[in-house]
Amino acid sequence: MRLEKITIRKFKGIRELELIIPRTDENREGSADFISIVGENNCCKSSILEAICLACPEVEPSQPTIDHFHMRDEANGPIEVEFEFGEVTEDDAKKRAIGPHVYNDKYIVRKKWSEADSRAIYEAKAPTVIYKNLPSPLTKQEQLKALPPEWKEVFETVKAKNPAAKNPALVQEMKTFALENKKELIEQGAPQWDTNPGGISPNLDSVLPRVIYVPAIRETNEEAAVSKRGSAIRQIVNTMFEEDLEGHEVIEAFKDAADRVKELFDEVGKHAAIRAIEGELTRRLGRLIDLEAIFDFTPPEVSDNLAGKTELWVRDQDIRTRPEHQGHGAQRALILALLELLADRAQRKQADGFKRTILLLIEEPEIYLHPSMCRKMRDVLLRIARLQTAQVICTTHSPVFLDLADRHDGIVILRRTSHGIEKVQRMADIFPGKELEEERSRLRMILNFDPSANEVFFTRKVCLVEGDCELAAINACGRRLADLKLISWEKFLLARRSVTVVNCRGKWTILPFQRVLNEFGVPYRIIHDEDKGAPAAANQKIISLLGNDEKRRIIHKPNFEQGIFSTVWTEDKPWRASQTILELTATNFPDSLKTFLEFVLDVKLDALKPEPENLAQAAQPQVQRPRHQKPVRRNERERIRKIAATAFGEPAQLNPQEYFGIAAGPFRLIDVSGLPKECTLDGEGRVVLATIRGESMANTLYDGDTAVLKKLDNVFLEPVEDIAAQTPFDNFRRSVQNGIYLVAVNDSIDNLAYTLKRVISQEQPDGSWICRICADNPEVRFGDRGQMLVRRTDRVHFAAKLIGIVEAVPNEGPTNGQ
Q: What pLDDT is recorded for position 632?
């Protein structure tokens, strides 16, 4: 049985998302059962892995919190994680949880959660059974006598076996007999969801994938500790132990000994020492309450938890240490080695087959690894995924884990749009047939020595160029124009970093890149030479794949150096182009070269001009502030509302020990879902009390203050693709005015890293607007020198607004003279 598809619904920022696991194609050397998920920050890459872990039995947590529900609201619908399996064998169908639910050679099962902290509801899709020519409802005796001949035979057979049977039990026995023996009497209708397939949850859990999860953002030493429940190393080691040691004579002897220990606790034949302890405890308990104490014993499942009782050490320069005390890179290397060992053992045992599908979930496999080790990690994961004993899903920000030529069906791009999370995955072969095999080979050649070409999936702008000369000219143009004060070098770098320029190293290799980018909907532009003879035959194919849009390409006639510099270079072209550009002056800088740079960057040079005030400031002597002089602090505290303790109701007594701590600095809030210590405030209704921790708001809020917060109802500033799609300023200001808010940005939302900061929004003269999140204390670093600008690609959650602080109660000690 092979896992083919995973569907996630209503989980965190995901409304609905479907992942198809590609099948290894032996004709493509890089093909594998391997998915690489890419996308910008805050587009739910990690949420996909979390949802799969929630549904699979080995990984915690097994129950969702409120933060797992879509938009943190249970009313948005239940969380669902659905698995679709294909290639169901006869042995698979014999399992109790599977057999009755196979439809069109598929087995589809899902888990649902409707409330936080609830257990999952198990469901499987079962085909509807239609009993041909059987009257329904069948309730009267006269109907039984008038049954069609084929059902009459079934009726008589069932009645003979159980003469006392009556309706409706008799009818049910007839249907059961037809299901088991008379296939021609039934047919399958459309499938429907059947609750609790297999009877009990362990039956279903036994067929779900065995998940090994290696997260990125967790204290790494937890992942390297074999004794740590849920750690990556423990999952891997446990998998190998279960496969290799189950049934071993020593393990069986251990189980026999454990069973003999259990006999000491059995009611019949209970050991005298245990009965004595029970009797004494019952006698003492009876003095307090009428209860009896009973001891029982459950033998340990040693084969299921061998890893948890196993110690793993490493020797480093003759010093034996635990892996969790090694560096992060060494810990990841150990996980890598264990995965490789798992792959080897899986291949040797492939004839016998693993009992369950192994699903490796790896978040940012490149993290902590040296580049060469990163490539090794990719090779090991690819090898595992090609063995057909395990499948791999990873999230990544590294082009090393992508393969445009052979594993395009395993690339999943996530984009956040105004409508939610958009997923792009292309399962069809981009290079079908022999006629496109050369293009695949050309692309494979480029990727073999320049994996950075895969960066086309990590940017919003792509420019394909024919060779080294154009690539060298880009930076040379930027440097020279900045030296001439015609553009800002900082602005140029910002624009250059937002574009991935791919050196295709030839015109014919542009074509396969075009096919891949077209399939995944990645916008791109092209620069190439006109050329003569055979290479020119590619020109028409290039424009055809561009949809005949001439605005998206520049052709240099007959080539780059002659079209720009009216010269011919026979060797060392990139160097000659760079040196020629760096010697240009403001008066002889060719317009064609400026057009070339604007086309690559997709930005007009006027937008890169230095700011006038920056030029004036640079011309003036800089006054250095003495090191001992601190920034002037603003007094914002007087402006904040002071609320008397007597203004609160429910409860009247305010106990600071019961408040939760809210960050106003480097601290992090553990959980905002409950927002404890709610009470009422005159004129405001329900409010929340919190104790201030930290000093980044020290001009307004002091460490230890009691803050009064008004909760907001799902106020999110969502990211947008362009300014035209930005939330109207008036709409935003209806929910968020200038003030102090409990906020989190991007990944901090999922990590519950909320903090109190001042929020200031301003409308610009052109109709656009900006939002700043600031610390009040200029001595404390937050974001960019005490503040951060919210960009249009950011997602911000405004959880609550600060409406005041509780007024301190004056001391009532002795007055003067007493």
A: 46
DSSP 125: E
Q: Which pLDDT score, from 0 to 100, does residue 324 have?
A: 66
Residue 538 structure tokens: 């590619």
Residue 25: the pLDDT is 92
Angle at the Cα of 663 from the Cα atoms of 662 and 664, rounded to 5 degrees: 120
- pLDDT tens, position by position, 412-441: 999 888 778 999 999 999 999 888 999 999
Reported pTM: 0.66
Three-state DSSP at 401 gives helix
Find out whether 59 and 213 touch, Cβ atoms under 8 Å: yes
Residues 350, 352, 358, 362, Cα dihedral to 10°: -30
- Helix %, strand %, coil % of the chain (to 5): 35, 25, 40
Please list the alpha-helical segments (H only) found in 387-467: 437-449
Q: How far apart are CA 752 and CA 663, in angstroms?
A: 11
Strongest mean pLDDT among 321-325, 352-356, 431-435: 431-435
pLDDT given for residue 677 in this prediction: 64
Q: Are strands 34-39 and 79-86 parallel, antiparallel or unpaired?
A: unpaired
Q: How far is CA 89 from CA 2, 101, 129, in A?
A: 10, 13, 21
- Looking at residue 725, the DSSP 8-state letter turns out to be G
**Closest of 81, 83, 101 to residue 391, by C-alpha:** 83
CA–CA separation, 116 and 68 (whole Å): 8
For residue 82, what are the CA distances in angstroms to 4, 59, 77?
A: 11, 17, 15
Q: Which residue has the tokens 């888990």?
A: 111
Q: What is the DSSP string of 350-379?
A: TTT--SS-EEEEEE-TTTT--HHHHHHHHH
DSSP state of 69: B
Residue that the structure tokens 């553990």 belong to: 670
DSSP assignment of 563-603: HHHS----S-HHHHHHHHHHT--TTT--HHHHHHHHHHHTS
Residue with tokens 């084969």: 303
Under the banding of pLDDT at 50, 70 and 90, the label for residue 291 is: low
- Tell me, what amino acid is at 492? F
Predicted confidence band of residue 394 (pLDDT cuts 50, 70, 90):
very high
CB 171 within 8 A of CB 136: no
The secondary structure of residue 794, as a DSSP letter, is -
pLDDT tens per residue across span 189-207: 788 898 887 666 777 788 8
Please answer whether residues 739 and 660 qualify as being in contact, where contact means their C-beta atoms are separated by less than 8 angstroms. no
Model confidence at 634, pLDDT cuts 50, 70, 90, reads: low
Quote the Cα angle for 655-656-661, to 5°: 140
Tell me which H or E stretch contains 76: none
Distance between the two ends of the chain, CA-based, in angstroms?
88
- Looking at 264-317, list the stretches that DSSP marks H as alpha helix, in order from N- to C-terminal side: 272-286
Q: Six-digit token pair at 565? A: 């510099």
Count how many Cα atoms sit within 13 Å of the Cα of residue 364 in the half-sphere of its side chain.
14
**Percent residues over pLDDT 70 in the chain:** 79
**What is the C-alpha to C-alpha distance for residues 440 and 717, in angstroms, rounded to an integer?**
42
- HSE (side-chain half, CA atoms, 13 Å) at 797: 21
User: Which one, of 351, 303, 356, lies nearest residue 98 by Cα?
Assistant: 356
Residue 305, exposed/middle/buried by CB under 10 A (0-12, 13-18, 19+)?
middle
Token pair of 276, please?
């004595």
When pLDDT is averaged across residues 706-727 and rounded to a whole number, the result is 80
**What is the secondary structure of 122-171 as a DSSP string?**
EEEEEEEEEETT--SS---HHHHHT--HHHHHHHHHHHHH-TT--TTHHH
pLDDT in tens, 129-178: 888 888 877 777 777 778 888 888 888 888 888 887 777 778 888 888 88
Q: Where are the alpha helices (DSSP H) in 211-267?
A: 220-223, 232-245, 249-263
How many alpha carbons fall within 13 Å on the CB side of residue 23? 12
